[in-house]
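[Q] Does anyone have a clean C-alpha cell version of this?
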Amino acid sequence: MGLLYEIGDIVTLKKGHPCGSREWEILRVGADFRLKCMGCGRQIMVPRRMVEKNTKNLQKLHENS
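[A] Here you go.
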C-alpha cells in the first residue's frame, strides 16, 4: 500500500513544525527526502522511512501538459 511520492507534492505529516504548519512540499525524493515547510519556508532533509511512517495525507501535483 505504498504511496507514490513525487517532487512538488504536498505531504501532511502527523507532527507539526514548530511554526505550526503540518504541510510540507517535496523538493527531493530518494533514500532521503528534502522537504520545505509550507508555513515558514525552512527546508529539511529526513529519511524516507520517517516520511512514509508519519504521512497523514498526500496531495498530488496535477500537471496539465
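[Q] Thanks! Anything notable?
[A] The radius of gyration is 11 Å.
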